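Researcher: Go.
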Amino acid sequence: MKLVITGSPAVGRTSLCLRVADFCMQNGLKVGGMVSKEASSGLRCCDFESGTSGLFLRNEVSGIAIGHDFSVLESIGVTAIGMLRLIAMLC
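Model: Structure:
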């Protein structure tokens, strides 16, 4: 099954993804892909399967973005999505 969630900012897309993923994992289903989560210092990219995460957007105290680390998206996000595609092809 493939699932895409869309919506306006701050409507709960990430919360919904995390709840659905948790429910699926608790019921023995394989979950893959990535999600970005807010952190006190910016945004983290998180791989569902491995649990690996890294900060890819850093904020100032005022909330203005001051830096991106695209290597985090490449090493965690792209890998998570690639593994998800591989799993989908095998199922």
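Model: The chain is about 40% helix and 25% strand.
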